[in-house]
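Chapter review. Work through the record for Leucyl/phenylalanyl-tRNA--protein transferase before attempting the end-of-chapter questions.
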Amino acid sequence: MPNSIFLLDEAPLFPDARLAQDEPNGLLAVGGDLSATRLIEAYRHGIFPWFCEDEPILWWSPDPRCVFLLDEVHVSRSLRRELNKDKYIITINKAFPQVVRECAAPRTDQPDTWILPEMQQAYCKLHHLGLAHSIEIWESNDNEKLLVGGMYGVSIGRFFFGESMFSRRPNASKIALVYLANYLKNADFLLLDAQVGNPHLYRMGARDMPRTEFLQLLKQEINWQQPPNLWQSKILKEWKS
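Structure tokens for Leucyl/phenylalanyl-tRNA--protein transferase:
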């Protein structure tokens, strides 16, 4: 017998993520709001929001969970050549709202977006609270910097929950992912959550983890104290002319 889809009320609480639907995979609950309190509670329990325009807020915890173990990110030879070039400036938390807007912009293969204005506002609120962060890829041109790639997500405990990425230049989002994974690894994080897998993520080394294992690790590591000033706005790599 399939599990029920739970209807959330005003209390920022969630049912056990293990009760999510098998089909559609991971659908757990509907309703509630996108307040910071509720979002934090969701991420702490392996749950995230995903919904489209004209839909209610839907909450998910898929099985399996697509994740990057930080020492398993695959860098192809062509991508390594790109990384070795001094063509981009890499920063953290220099342009969070702009990264979110770029991720929300329509794409050739995805004209509609799930990063609706209310989602953008909610994650910008988490950013102001020090829980949501971005990594940016900049191109320097005639003394002007142009944002050409990046990604953003939520960081709690030893987990970084990736939300979305974008590219305006070939491989820019891949470069963001590689730099973020290396940054997290050096800070002793455990993994980068990619939520739901796709061929692009698997080619870069992502793996599927059973939800029970993901939730167990999350329970063990969610209260880990991150290094101070870890997410202070900074430059990771300067452009060299």
